[in-house]
Amino acid sequence: MSIRLRLTLWYSVILAVTLVVFGIAFYYFVNYNTYHVMKGKIAAQANAINITSSLDSFDNILIAPQSLLGDEELYIQVTNYKRGVYQQTSNLKRLDAKFEQPDPKTVSEDDEGFKHVTLGGQYPFVVYQHLLKQGNEVFGLLQVGAYSGTEDRYMSELRTTLIFSLIVVVLIAFTISLVLARQALRPIENVIQASNSIQNGSDLSMRIPRIGPNDELGRLTDTLNGMLGRIETTYNELDEAYKAQRRFVSDASHELRTPLTTIRGNIELLERMWPPALEAGPGEAAGAEDDAMPGVDARRMTMTREAMHDIAGEAKRMSNLVNDLLALARADAGYEMEKTVQPLLPLVEDVARRAQLLPRNADWKIGNLSAIDNVEVYAHADFLRQLLFIFVENAFKYTPSGHVELRATRSRDQAGIVIKDTGIGMSNEEVPHIFERFYRADESRGETSGTGLGLSIAKWIIDEHGGSVEVSTREGAGTTFTVWLPIAFHGTLNEV
């Protein structure tokens, strides 16, 4: 429920309660004044009858003639409980009805006073009842009444008017309050619209329109506009810094690749040109050394060769790191791959064949690949190979013994490539973080080499191909990665 509607409901409820209290008080005030004069006249007539008439006789009750009562509008009835008789004035006799009387056996002081009664089911009266006593014994009842039809109709109409007026006033007040609340809270609507526009479109240049006086909402609008200005400035500065960082990483990666390639090329050239004599065994080294390179110290040559091996290994590791950084820089820069329709089976078989040459301790098994026979995907072939090599190398790295298996599966319009190992596995707490950059499981730190970038690159490649990856793992029981790729059917392309 909106603030506007809640405020309107509160105002309407308060107004309704106020009007109800006022209406009830007004009604009872008018009711009292309307019947007060009539009741005073009735009570005065009852006292006059009690004094002037022979009502104190236990055996006989006489009522003064109507002409002596002086008021044709009053209706009088006297009842003698002992003799079982009653007397009425002529006007009451003409109605052919009589006032109801309390049971003589249960009559008490509570029966004395004013009562509202109806004669004949259609004539409303206000009746004053006076108990006639001799000592403590009640021997009769004096009833003096007046027709109250006019007053009752007036009070009924007053009740209807008050109720109808209450409903109309509350509805009008509710409508007006709703309009006024909407107008008063319009700046908040502007704040919400501007916030939604910024959230959906990332347009930090939008500002909230300034409407109305310099009240609390106006100051809130100014504060939010100032805050948006500072956020826009900070965001632009951070965006520029982030762009500069991405350019630096990309440029540095490109710049580093050239010297690393040169280093690796020269080292490999030196290794190929190294004298074969130094490759001989310990027993042959001295004689061969004298013939091939006289005066060269064999021990120094061995140390030099070991140093060249180390340089070559580190240069290769740095090349891999630079290539990973370059791939991530492309991902951050929004690089879009140029994809074409590729047959999946030959590509996977090529990866399986080349994976046999990777350094490993586990056995390499190629499972059933028939599920992807004649299956085509919309992909970038080189990046797709890199994706599969990342998972295969990762499996070899964390499988010190056992085997790593590659097989294929299919589910409706998706082809799945499964890489399963029997390695160290992972805990459930580690799985949500494995695709984060530089993340490495605690159990593997210090035991296996790597930068923690491989799976991040793999996730980027999968996302660019519109695919997904499933992970099933258990500590000490290995890990299974299933890469799902959308199939490109003839005549349609599942573009990302």
Automatic annotation (TrEMBL):
Residue ranges annotated for the Histidine kinase domain, each copy included: 251-489
EC number(s) given by UniProt: 2.7.13.3
Enzyme class: transferase
SMART domains xrefs: HAMP, HATPase_c, HisKA
InterPro entries: HAMP_dom, HATPase_C_sf, HATPase_dom, His_kinase_dom, HisK_dim/P_dom, HisK_dim/P_sf, Sig_transdc_His_kin-like_C, TCS_sensor_his_kinase
Ranges of residues in domain HAMP: 182-236
One Pfam assignment: HATPase_c
Sorted UniProt keywords: ATP-binding, Cell membrane, Kinase, Membrane, Nucleotide-binding, Phosphoprotein, Transferase, Transmembrane, Transmembrane helix, Two-component regulatory system
Localization: Cell membrane
UniProt protein name: histidine kinase
Reactions catalysed according to its record: ATP + protein L-histidine = ADP + protein N-phospho-L-histidine
Membrane topology value: Multi-pass membrane protein
Gene Ontology molecular function: ATP binding; phosphorelay sensor kinase activity
CC terms in the record's Gene Ontology section: plasma membrane
Transmembrane segments annotated in the record for this chain: 7-30, 162-181
Source organism, top-level taxon: Bacteria
